[in-house]
Amino acid sequence: MTELDVPGRVTAKIFPYPLNAWYAAAWDHEVTAKAPVARTVAGRPLALYRTQDGRPVALDDACWHRLAPLSQGKLVGRDGIQCPYHGLQYNAAGRCTSMPAQPTVNPSALVTSHPVVERYRYVWVWPGDPLLADADTIPDMHQMDSPEWAGDGLTIEAPCNYQLILDNLMDLTHEEFVHGSSIGQAELSESEFTTRHEDDGSVTVTRWMRDVEPPPFWLKNMRDKFPGFSGRVDRWQIIHYYAPSTICIDVGVAEAGTGAPEGDRSRGVNGYVMNTITPETDTTSHYFWAFMRNYRLESQLITTQLREGVHGVFAEDEAMLVAQQRAIDANPDKVFYSLTIDAGGMWVRRILDRMLAAEGRSLPVPSSTPSQVTS
Ligand code: FES
Ligand SMILES: [Fe+2]
After folding, report:
1. Which of 35, 133, 237, 373 is the S-S candidate for 6 at Cβ 3.0 to 4.6 Å?
2. Which residues pair with 291 in a beta bridge?
3. Looking at residue 362, what is its pLDDT?
4. 3-class SS of residue 326
5. For residues 176 and 211, is the Cβ–Cβ distance under 8 A?
6. Residue 363: band (very low, low, confident or very high) from pLDDT cuts 50, 70, 90
7. Beta carbons of 37 and 31 less than 8 angstroms apart
8. Rounded CA gap, 307 and 153, in Å?
């Protein structure tokens, strides 16, 4: 066993989340002008709704008066919401505009209205300091609504710390063991990978598997584009992490030896697995995912088949994450150890650690000895 120079000696099991960040709070279609929806983002219970002209709004889900949840109220007027308890009304800025039982409105009556941006089919919320909210820092998920890509996705309500999901996506060698019947193969562990990190808080992990048998999921996709295809493929997985918790994975296979590793993917199929994970609490997460593809864009059948296929694959991840979180909770004195395969995930932790430090917060230190990095 040798120690590697992988960043981060202390591997926290329950990772805090930055507050000064954009998080996907909901799919666009979940937020309507008909009724508010309750959603907790980064520990903040929110009431989400749209104004009559379609603008999404995120208010703290606790009335100024007696903290009743506004999400159980109803939408009123052009941009307002009414508390279900004593009828106070608030506008989209969170200012109280009506107190039914008295003639004047107390000027200090307001609830926090958080910065909101609708982009890439999601409604993004900034739970931290509103003065720092810059929409340009929303991670690039352009495949979600580009005319050159088609696909769909779902949400997993995952009962685990968000960092466990980031770990899961930053190292895909688990596919051999967790997804053996669809996308797993031994070459995942056997092939080399590279890890690159940038000052902007992005990390890229690249793995090529050359001249391998396509696993069932990829053989089906190849046959959707090239009917009757058989033979070996070059397979790629290029994992793009954007701070704090978005991971877009460029995945695909191409007929072996036709130049895909050098840039010619014309004899292959290409997908993007879009993942953005929103911490709900320390031990629960909203995990939004979609599978986008850039071939056979017209086929709703393929869109649905891929969504259902990936849904089945991710259910296997969810079962493992649930079991892992349960074991973590049952073993408070035990620590995490890290392997070579964790290099990408360890960079993610370092970047998150930096974001937390900028907010004046720091990582909890494991109760026992720090983790070792071994191979
Ligand atoms: S708690 Fe909302 S009006 Fe009283
Ligand atoms: Fe997985």
Report:
1. 373
2. 152, 273
3. 73
4. helix
5. no
6. low
7. yes
8. 6
E strand or H helix at 220, and its extent?
helix 216-225
Asked if residue 76 lies in contact with residue 53, where contact means CB atoms within 8 angstroms, the answer is no
Strand partners of residue 46? 39, 60
Average pLDDT, the chain: 93
User: How far is the centre of ligand 2, averaged over its atoms, from the C-alpha of 348 (Å)?
Assistant: 18
Closest to 324 (Cα-Cα) out of 154, 185, 168? 168
Angle at 288 between CA 74 and CA 176, to 5 degrees: 155
Cα Rg of the chain, angstroms: 23
* Tokens 């903040």 found at: 44
Q: What is the pLDDT of residue 371?
A: 41
pLDDT at residue number 328: 92
In a mutational test of the pocket of ligand 1, which residue from 61, 71, 88 has the highest number of ligand atoms less than 8 Å from its CB? 88
Amino acid letter, 108? S
Q: Evaluate: CB of 65 within 6 angstroms of ligand 1.
A: yes
Least confident range of 119-123, 167-171, 334-338: 334-338
Distance CA 195, CA 224 (A): 32
Q: Is residue 366's pLDDT more than 60?
A: no
Query: Could you tell me the distance, in angstroms and rounded to a whole number, from the CA of residue 64 to the centre of ligand 1?
Result: 7
What integer pLDDT is reported at residue 4 of this predicted model? 39
Closest Cα to atom 1, ligand 1: which residue?
66
Residue 47 Cβ < 6 Å to ligand 1: no
Q: How far is the CA of 52 from the centre of ligand 1 (A)?
A: 23
Residues 88-127 have pLDDT tens digits of 999 999 999 999 999 999 999 999 999 999 999 999 999 9
CB 344 within 8 A of CB 239: yes
**Whole-angstrom distance, CA of residue 61 vs CA of residue 181:** 43
Residue nearest to ligand 1 atom 4, measured at CA? 86
Other C-beta atoms lying within 10 Å of the C-beta of residue 123 = 24
Atom of ligand 1 nearest to the CA of 64: 2
Ligand 1 pocket, mutate which of 60, 61, 83, 110 (most atoms under 8 A from CB): 83
Rounded to the nearest 10 degrees, what angle do helices 343-358 and 162-170 cross at? 140
**Given the structure tokens 């995120």, which residue do they identify?**
58
